[in-house]
Amino acid sequence: MHRGRAYLALTLASLFWAGNYVFGEMVTAEISPVSLTFWRWAFAAIPLLVFAWAIERPDWRGVVREWPWHLLLSVLGLTGYTLFLYSALGLTGAVTASVISAINPATIALAAAIFLHERLRGVQVVGLVVAFLGVTVVLTGGDLLAVLRQGFRIGDLLVVGAVIVWSAYVIVSRRLATPPITATAVQAVIAVVTMLPLVAVVGIALPTSAAGIAGLAYIVIFPSMLGYAFWNLGAAAVGPARAGIFLNLLPVFTVLIALVLGQSLEPVAMAGGALVLLGVYLTLRVGRSKRADASADVTAP
C-alpha cells in the first residue's frame, strides 16, 4: 500500500474509533459491556468474512495454520480491549477515556523498539513527548498537579488496561501472514465463539431505544468492520510504531464529535489537542526528511 493511502486508512480508523468512544458511552447506558462486545462482533463477523473473500481471496489453509495467533489476537484486541474500554466508559466518560488512550503511541513505540528492534529517532521521541504533554493538559485541565491530588479513578485504570492490551495486540499482529481484512474477520468469529461461555453465565441484551440501536449500528459498521480493517491495512504498510502515532488523534476526533452532538469545549482542551496534532506531525515528518535509515520503515518482525 502507498504510504499516503496507509496514512489515510490509519486516520479513518482513528476517526471511527473516536465515534466508538462517544456511542459506546451512550449504548453502555442501556446494556452491559459484555452485551455490547458480543453483539458488536456477532453482527460484524459475517460481513467481514464476505469482504475478506471478495477483496483478498485468502488462502484459508494458511489462515487455519495460524489459528493460535488468531486466537491470541482475538482475545487481546477484539474481546479484551473492548471489554476494558466499554467497562471504563460509564465510569470515566468518552472524552477522558480517549485522552488517556492517547498514550498508546508511546507504549506501542516502546514495545516495537524492544521486541521488533525498530529505531526511534530523536525527532520521533520529541513528537511523542509533545503529544503526551497535550494529553496531560487535556486530562488535568491545565493543572498538572491535579492527578497527584485526586488520583486515578477506577475508570481511568480500566482505560490503562485497554491501552496495555491494545499495545500487545499491535505487536503480536506483526507475526501474521494472513491478509488484514481476513485476519479481522476470523478473529471476530473467534471472539463470538470464545464469549459464549461468558454470555451463558451473565446473559445479554439488546438496546431498546432508537438512540441505542443507532449507536450499536454505528459501532458494528464503522469501528468494528471498517476501523479494524483500515487499521490493519495501514499498520502493515508503515509499521506499528508509526501507526501507533495516529492514536493521538483519538482525543481530537472525540472532542470534535462531542461538539457536533452539542457538548461544550474548554479552551484547555483546544490547547491540548493542538499539542497532540503537533506531536503527530513531528513524528511523521521523520519519514519524509530522513530516508536514509531503513529501520524507520520496518514492516516485518
UniProtKB/TrEMBL annotation:
The chain crosses the membrane at residues 34-55, 67-89, 95-116, 128-148, 154-172, 184-206, 212-231, 243-261, 267-284. Its main location: membrane. GO terms for cellular component: membrane. Keywords: Membrane, Transmembrane, Transmembrane helix. InterPro entries: AA-Vitamin_Transporters, EamA_dom, EmrE-like. Pfam families: EamA. It is a multi-pass membrane protein. It is found in: Membrane. SUPFAM superfamilies: Multidrug resistance efflux transporter EmrE. Residues 6-139, 154-284 form the EamA domain. PANTHER family: EAMA DOMAIN-CONTAINING PROTEIN (PTHR32322:SF2), INNER MEMBRANE TRANSPORTER (PTHR32322). Belongs to the EamA transporter family. This is EamA-like transporter family protein. It comes from Agromyces cerinus subsp. cerinus. The lineage of its organism: Bacteria, Bacillati, Actinomycetota, Actinomycetes, Micrococcales.
